[in-house]
């Protein structure tokens, strides 16, 4: 460059040097539309049904399309067709009649409650409760479905799904619960027959749905009792009325969900199949529709066992 020959500096091209050039702005706008469109992963509204099902872990989108095309999917009671949309947070979706949970906010847990722990999320007297067992690993605010008294142990369901909790705890829905109970022995055969026939208590007749003698010794006996009653201390009161007060009581099942080999004080997530069968158990006895946002309370409807 010769002295005195001063040329103006070259302006950066919009496509290479200037990140805020017209082309870059246009590309960013298109990306934003894609990110916030109706099929976006962050969308809170209706989405393509096959995407909602795939997001719930049913299978690939292609596999979910085949389920829809085969007429096996219903949304809010109506058989779905390809092209339908659903809101994963509010739509009620079934596949082959089984409920599919699509709301990622909902949590379903099984806890093995130890003896001496109160069945509350927080205790005004400062006793250890369920929150101490869950710790910080469960970020959602969950509530217990039914209760076990402090001296009882075993399976306790936890969820933030008000619909399912209502169906499982309402007395008219009659979801069966199974208990393993240790009582003083020897245990005569008349005890089982009396439990199945029904025992008159101060608040009415109480009857077991099933009874089985698991083990028997001279001083103690181990029995399994299934009933759908939810009255306070119902198992303890029935056995006490027959002269065999409870020594130890463990709940081993709530409907289709089993305690299994879950260690004392530990918890696990329910499987998709377990949740579906729980909904089926609750719906079999449902008195009517329950709002999706039905509130849960720290003192649930089912009394202590």
Helix-strand pattern: HEHHEEEEEEHEEHEHEEEEHEEEH
Number of helices: 8
Enumerate the spans where pLDDT stays under 50 for 5 or more consecutive residues: 12-21, 27-42, 286-303
The end-to-end distance, rounded to whole angstroms, is 95 Å
> Into which percent range does the helicity of residues fall?
10-25%
Radius of gyration: 28 Å
**Range of strand content:** 15-25%
Which secondary-structure class do the elements indicate?
A: alpha+beta
Q: Which assembly state applies to the chains in this document?
A: single chain
Q: Sketch the major β-sheet.
A: 9 strands, mixed
So what's the overall shape? Answer: elongated
Mean pLDDT score, rounded? 81
Compute the number of strand runs. 17
Give the gist of this structure.
By secondary structure, this protein is of the alpha+beta class.
Describe the protein's topology.
Elements: H1 22-36, E1 47-48, H2 49-55, H3 61-69, E2 73-75, E3 78-79, E4 85-86, E5 93-95, E6 98-100, E7 108-113, H4 130-134, E8 143-145, E9 153-159, H5 162-169, E10 177-184, H6 189-197, E11 199-201, E12 204-206, E13 210-216, E14 220-227, H7 234-241, E15 248-254, E16 257-258, E17 267-269, H8 272-283
Parallel strand pairs: 9-15
Antiparallel strand pairs: 1-4, 2-3, 2-5, 5-6, 7-9, 7-17, 8-9, 10-14, 10-15, 11-12, 13-14, 15-16
Helix pairs in contact: 2-3
């Amino acid at each position: 460059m010769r002295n005195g020959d001063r040329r103006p500096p070259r302006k950066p091209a919009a496509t290479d040097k200037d990140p805020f050039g017209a082309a870059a702005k246009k590309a960013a706008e298109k990306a934003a539309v894609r990110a916030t469109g109706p099929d976006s992963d962050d969308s809170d509204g209706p989405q393509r049904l096959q995407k909602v099902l795939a997001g719930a872990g049913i299978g690939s989108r292609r596999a979910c399309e085949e389920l829809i095309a085969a007429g096996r999917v219903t949304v809010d009671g109506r058989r779905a067709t390809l092209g339908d949309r659903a809101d994963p947070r509010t739509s009620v979706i079934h596949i082959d009649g089984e409920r599919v949970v699509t709301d990622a906010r909902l949590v379903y847990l099984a806890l093995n409650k130890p003896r001496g722990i109160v069945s509350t999320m927080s205790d005004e007297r400062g006793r250890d409760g369920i929150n101490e067992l869950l710790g910080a690993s469960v970020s959602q605010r969950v509530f217990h479905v039914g209760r076990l008294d402090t001296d009882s142990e075993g399976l306790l369901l936890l969820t933030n799904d008000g619909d399912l909790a209502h169906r499982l705890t309402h007395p008219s829905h009659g979801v069966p619960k199974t208990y393993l109970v240790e009582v003083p022995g020897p245990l005569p055969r008349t005890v089982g027959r009396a439990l199945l026939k029904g025992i008159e208590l101060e608040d009415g007749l109480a009857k077991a749905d099933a009874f089985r003698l698991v083990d028997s010794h001279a001083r103690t006996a181990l029995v399994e009792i299934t009933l759908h009653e939810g009255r306070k201390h119902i198992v303890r009161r029935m056995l006490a009325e027959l002269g065999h007060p409870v020594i130890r009581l463990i709940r081993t099942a709530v409907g289709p969900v089993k305690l299994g080999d879950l260690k004392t004080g530990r918890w696990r997530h329910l499987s998709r199949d377990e949740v579906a069968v729980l909904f089926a158990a609750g719906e079999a006895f449902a008195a009517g529709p329950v709002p999706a946002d039905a509130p849960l309370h720290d003192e649930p409807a089912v009394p202590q066992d």
